[in-house]
């Protein structure tokens, strides 16, 4: 069974290779960022990218979308936006005295929600139904969204001026939260040389289709996970809300709200996609540990005592990884 899956992986992984190579023509470095975007794409999970301005977050998402021959919408979030600017609205037609539905930019395949935390909560919440149910309601009528549908959102750190914290319910809808860091010195030199050379930026070509992505998702769903690996995923997530595990890791009284069962589902799906990108037909604990931080970091609410002691969600997840037994 595993051999058959690995044969399918070998065939369908060429799609991911083409996407990585095409995006790499424009984007310097940020291999981890591109990998996480592909994991979201392969597992159908939305991705939230956080980092200071100027780290190519928007460029990475736009380049990936252009490399796939599918629908793409870029929504620039601003403080004066209304929910209708995203979902759509009804327009009155005086000729036949009727209302017509005008669909918003969310009716596409890949949605770039740029600087999502610059819009107020009611606008951010307008994405909730689309992200979770793959549908949108306009004037009491519900419309299904076409697959593949994926929201790739970027945000500046909350401490930046003019930003609003995302509602907890919406944050939980994102499978991964990826923190984008500064490039290395060598990578930054390449960026400067490329811009200063006077050469035009390469045009991204479409090298994959929606059918390729949907077929690859089908292969990802077939990747085998042993019972011990599934137990490890559940134990790791439950450790964020289990007092016994917290005491064992020295974290008692530091986590006010742990990760929900949705985190277990997402961690398992993301681990399968990670195994797919590694060319394996089975999930290992290493896959789980590689994705645990990105799946869990935005789902933990720390107590005031933990924040006063300078604890962070990243540090707490790392301590849980060090203490939860690995099969």
Description:
The protein is an alpha/beta fold. The protein has two domains: 2-212, P-loop containing nucleotide triphosphate hydrolases (Rossmann fold, 3-Layer(aba) Sandwich), CATH 3.40.50; 224-323, Magnesium chelatase subunit I, C-Terminal domain (Helicase, Ruva Protein, domain 3). 46% of the residues lie in helices and 16% in strands. It has 15 helices and eleven strands. The protein has helices at 2-24, 31-43, 57-66, 84-87, 121-124, 128-133, 168-171, 185-196, 210-222, 227-238, 243-248, 261-277, 285-296, 304-308, 313-323, and strands at residues 46-50, 72-76, 88-93, 98-103, 110-114, 135-138, 141-144, 150-155, 174-179, 255-257, 301-302. The strands form four sheets. Strands 2-5-8-1-9 form a five-stranded parallel beta sheet. The chain has a two-stranded antiparallel ribbon with strand order 3-4. α1 (2-24) crosses α9, α9 crosses α12 (261-277) and α12 (261-277) crosses α13. The longest helix has 23 residues, at 2-24. It starts with a helix and ends with a helix.
Topology summary:
Elements: H1 2-24, H2 31-43, E1 46-50, H3 57-66, E2 72-76, H4 84-87, E3 88-93, E4 98-103, E5 110-114, H5 121-124, H6 128-133, E6 135-138, E7 141-144, E8 150-155, H7 168-171, E9 174-179, H8 185-196, H9 210-222, H10 227-238, H11 243-248, E10 255-257, H12 261-277, H13 285-296, E11 301-302, H14 304-308, H15 313-323
Helix pairs in contact: 1-9, 2-12, 9-12, 10-12, 10-13, 12-13, 13-15
Q: How do the helices and strands follow one another from N- to C-terminus?
A: HHEHEHEEEHHEEEHEHHHHEHHEHH
Distance between the termini: 22 Å
- Major β-sheet strand ordering: 2-5-8-1-9
Strand percentage, roughly?
Answer: 15-25%
